[in-house]
């Protein structure tokens, strides 16, 4: 979270607390209702702060939304970025899958916010997808292809592998209502999902004898 305001002045403890209240409230509101369905009045009511108070810290609803997305994209890409070229390929990929499952369990609101933005055509983050996400995606796809060419993991399309990991892990957060209807509210679902996905991808990526 930024510690300076637009004028470059250090924020006080109360100001930092208020910004956090606003951001947490906005995450709740945007993840449920999307950008179009959300209002500053909802964010104010959820945060316990007045609308003028919110406008002291942010220029408006879009400013809050974009700030959330910028923070989210950094957190979302960190596990992929940390995939170690010098590590054991299968272990590196499984560690990535496990981290994505942890994020699904611990950050469902963030996942739904990101999904809502993409479903709408990414109007406020398409440029970031092109300038930030795509280069990282290409680098990791190339790394996985190197592992494949070296015979360290099975011959799969690395592009579809990464996208499949995203799809299978994030589904549990983005479609939580459906998952609960089908599987109940058992807290063990996340751990079962982790075991299932790690096992499935391990079998898929283990080279044939």
User: At the first level of CATH, what is the class of the largest domain?
Assistant: Mainly Alpha
Query: What structural class should be given to the helix and strand makeup?
Result: mainly alpha
Mean pLDDT: 90
CA-based shape: elongated
Question: Can you offer a commentary on this structure?
Answer:
This protein has two domains: about 15-60, Arc Repressor Mutant, subunit A (Orthogonal Bundle), CATH 1.10.10.60; about 65-205, Tetracycline Repressor, domain 2 (Orthogonal Bundle). The model has no long low-confidence stretch (mean pLDDT about 90). It contains ten helices and no strands. The longest helix has 24 residues, at about 125-150. Helix 1 packs across helix 6. The protein is mainly alpha-helical. The relative contact order is 0.10. Helices cover about 75% and strands about 0% of the residues. The chain has helices at about 15-35, 40-45, 50-55, 60-80, 90-105, 110-120, 125-150, 160-175, 175-185, 190-205.
List the helices and strands and how they pair.
Elements (H helix, E strand, L loop, with lengths): L12 H21 L6 H8 L3 H7 L3 H21 L7 H18 L1 H12 L6 H24 L8 H17 L1 H8 L5 H17 L4
Key words describing this protein structure:
209 residues, mainly alpha, Arc Repressor Mutant, subunit A, Tetracycline Repressor, domain 2, 2 domains, 10 helices
